[in-house]
Specification:
Layout: H1 2-38, E1 42-49, E2 64-68, E3 71-73, E4 75-79, E5 86-91, H2 101-114, E6 120-131, E7 134-146, H3 149-156, H4 167-178, E8 191-197, H5 208-218, E9 221-227, H6 230-235, H7 249-259, H8 276-301, E10 304-308, H9 314-325, E11 328-333, E12 344-351, E13 359-362, E14 365-367
Parallel strand pairs: 5-6, 5-8, 8-9, 9-10
Antiparallel strand pairs: 1-11, 1-13, 2-3, 2-12, 4-11, 6-7, 12-14
């Protein structure tokens, strides 16, 4: 009888203990799930070249070391140069580009054909709409990401011109429309902007800082084919204000806000009230601002700016961009600093087991999410 009582007592105790163990295991699983959901995988695109500038293509995950704010991180993801890319192709078809539209679309088609099988492309361009009886410029996503080359070729035939440059709005559409969804595993850390533009915005509702912050968070590699349109613009900027090429009101406001934020001088809002000296000064500063912004976005993302004198050189520049995209490595890590404080974190990539004299170009940092 006492054996039966002991067995019954053990059965009761084990029954009481099992739910506790199960609850603990479940809580542990929940905790693990919370960590997985809330910890952001940081993607780091990397370009490696030898001392002669030739890409190094045979590296492995073990060759790379990544630091965040000086602390070594454990790599959780690695993609070699052969992995496919997703590309947002932004074509600036405003201003001096109007007479060069066939040249632009042919260069863009050549670029798309230069990409590898499996690479996917989305095309963004500008157009003119009618609003309140006047023409306004707008950015437009002409096609979502696709690897259908024939479809992309046909979409390029629909690219039109605009009477303004909503460049910053176009950048935002890259983040909000083209890359709005999390990438498939094979494209993780392998997303790029390729923009053919002079970078001088004239009509956007958005600003550069907003676009830059979104790009920094998304980890999009930024390449710019920077067309020099300044001489053309300034040749048509002076003289009679009715026939001259004008600044938009947004450009004039940006000029004063950026370069004379605390000045007490009278801020002119009408283009026709500007003298030739003011027009040239605004032009000079806006082009320098565009140059600074493009180089900042490219450098911090691990991309590059390719300056060209005119649209006839765009095809060669596009070929260089296609080569760059085809030689990118991608690294990924879960940061050891799990704070969701919105702080900016610096990234540094080092190599081991490679010859001396190599050059590393990589994403330089990101903004941590906020709670």
């Amino acid at each position: 009888m006492w054996q039966f009582k002991m067995f019954f007592l053990l059965l009761i105790l084990s029954a009481g203990f099992a739910p506790a163990v199960f609850a603990q295991d479940k809580n542990a699983e929940d905790d693990d799930e919370i960590v997985r959901v809330e910890t952001q995988l940081v993607d780091v695109p990397v370009e490696i070249t030898d001392k002669s500038g030739k890409p190094i293509l045979n590296l492995k995950q073990s060759n790379f070391v990544v630091y965040e704010d000086g602390k070594r991180q454990e790599l959780a993801d690695f993609a070699a140069t052969s992995a496919p890319f997703e590309v947002a192709l932004l074509l600036d078809t405003s201003g001096s580009a109007r007479s060069e539209l066939p040249l632009i679309t042919r260069a863009a088609e050549h670029f798309i054909n230069s990409l590898r099988p499996g690479d996917r492309v989305s095309i963004i361009s500008f157009r003119s709409d009618r609003e309140g009886g006047r023409a306004v410029a707008a950015s437009e996503v002409l096609t979502d990401l696709t690897d259908d080359r024939l479809k992309l070729k046909n979409v390029l035939k629909t690219v039109s011109v605009s009477n303004g440059t909503p460049y910053y709005d176009g950048l935002l559409q890259v983040v909000e429309r083209v890359f709005s969804q999390e990438p498939d595993e094979k494209f993780r850390g392998r997303r790029a902007l390729v923009a053919l533009t002079d970078g001088v915005d004239s009509t956007s509702a958005a600003g550069f800082e907003e676009a830059r912050e979104r790009f920094t968070q998304a980890g999009i590699v930024s390449y710019f084919i920077q067309v020099d349109t300044r001489e053309f613009f300034e040749e048509n900027l002076l003289g009679d204000c009715q026939s001259a090429m004008r600044f938009s009101a947004a450009q004039i406001r940006r000029y004063y806000r950026t370069f004379y934020p605390k000045s007490k001088i009278e801020k002119i809002s009408s283009f026709c009230a500007l003298g030739d000296f003011e027009r040239l000064d605004i032009s000079k500063n806006l082009y320098e601002l565009a140059d600074k912004e493009m180089n900042l976005l490219a450098k911090t993302s691990g991309g590059k700016v390719f300056p060209v004198a005119d649209f006839s050189e765009a095809r060669t520049a596009f070929a260089r961009v296609a080569q760059e995209i085809g030689t990118k490595y991608s690294l990924g890590y879960y940061p050891s600093n799990e704070k969701r404080d919105g702080s900016y974190r610096t990234i540094k990539v080092e190599l081991k087991g490679v010859p001396t004299g190599v050059t590393i170009r990589a994403r330089e940092g990101y903004t941590a999410p906020k709670s």
